[in-house]
């Protein structure tokens, strides 16, 4: 895993072939297949090893927010708890592992092990964050907004540069996402066909 991580950092995912990993780890392809199943599974393990501590940090910060505020919690505090760990990871990876951060920010292939991991992580943070937010907004809508917050944080990782700073990116993300989370509920849009039918029923 250490060899694969270093190869990603130096040349990106495309440079992390099974042969290159085996050579860097002074091992062989059979060992990778034995322990992981293949190259994709090895990369999944690398991603999980980096993201699971980030998830624990999110849960920890959400608990601190819950202890500090009475619901509804300011949206900015919730956003800070959700995206700060991503930016802390980015700072930890800089400057020599920007490519690793970009890999973490890429959309996961649907149905893949990484996609399943990200979905489990999202469900956990949504379960903790939704009860803290404005109860006048439907829970389903809040969950969708939280998905967009996570997407924005992933976009920062995907576009990582060596010049990024935690404070600068955090200020931008919190300001952007908190406005969306704290917006009033979206009015329910009734399809025009249903509106016409409702008017006919009222006339009848």
Protein described:
- The chain has about 200 residues and is mainly alpha-helical.
- The chain has a domain at about 50-185: Tetracycline Repressor, domain 2 (Orthogonal Bundle).
- Helix content is about 70%, strand content about 0%.
- It has ten helices and no strands.
- It has helices at about 1-10, 20-25, 30-35, 40-70, 75-95, 100-105, 115-130, 140-160, 165-180, 190-204.
Q: Indicate the low-confidence ranges by residue numbers.
A: none
Task: Determine the strand fraction and express it as a percent band.
Answer: under 5%
Specify Rg, calculated over alpha carbons. Answer: 21 Å
Average of the residue pLDDT scores:
84
Oligomeric state: single chain
Total number of helices? 10
Query: What is the top-level CATH class of the domain at 49-184?
Result: Mainly Alpha
Shape: elongated
Provide tags for this entry.
mainly alpha; 204 residues; Tetracycline Repressor, domain 2
Topology summary:
Blueprint: H1 2-11, H2 18-24, H3 29-35, H4 39-68, H5 75-93, H6 98-105, H7 113-129, H8 139-158, H9 166-181, H10 192-203
Helix pairs in contact: 1-6, 4-5, 4-7, 5-8, 5-9, 6-8, 8-9
Concise account of the structure shown:
The protein has helices at residues 2-11, 18-24, 29-35, 39-68, 75-93, 98-105, 113-129, 139-158, 166-181, 192-203.
């Amino acid at each position: 895993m250490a060899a694969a991580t270093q190869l990603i950092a130096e040349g990106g995912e495309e440079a992390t072939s099974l042969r290159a990993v085996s050579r860097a780890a002074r091992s062989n392809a059979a060992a990778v297949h034995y322990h992981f199943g293949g190259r994709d599974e090895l990369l999944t393990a690398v991603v999980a090893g980096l993201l699971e501590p980030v998830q624990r940090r999110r849960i920890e910060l959400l608990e601190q927010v819950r202890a500090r505020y009475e619901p509804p919690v300011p949206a900015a505090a919730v956003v800070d708890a959700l995206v700060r760990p991503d930016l802390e990871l980015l700072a930890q990876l800089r400057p020599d592992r920007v490519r690793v951060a970009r890999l973490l920010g890429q959309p996961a292939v649907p149905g893949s092990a990484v996609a399943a991991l990200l979905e489990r992580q999202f469900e956990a943070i949504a379960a903790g964050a939704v009860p803290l937010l404005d109860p006048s907004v439907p829970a389903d809508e809040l969950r969708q907004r939280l998905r967009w917050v996570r997407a924005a944080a992933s976009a920062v990782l995907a576009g990582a540069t060596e010049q990024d700073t935690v404070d600068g990116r955090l200020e931008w993300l919190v300001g952007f996402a908190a406005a969306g989370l704290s917006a009033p509920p979206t009015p329910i849009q009734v399809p025009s066909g249903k509106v016409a039918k409702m008017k006919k029923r009222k006339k009848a």
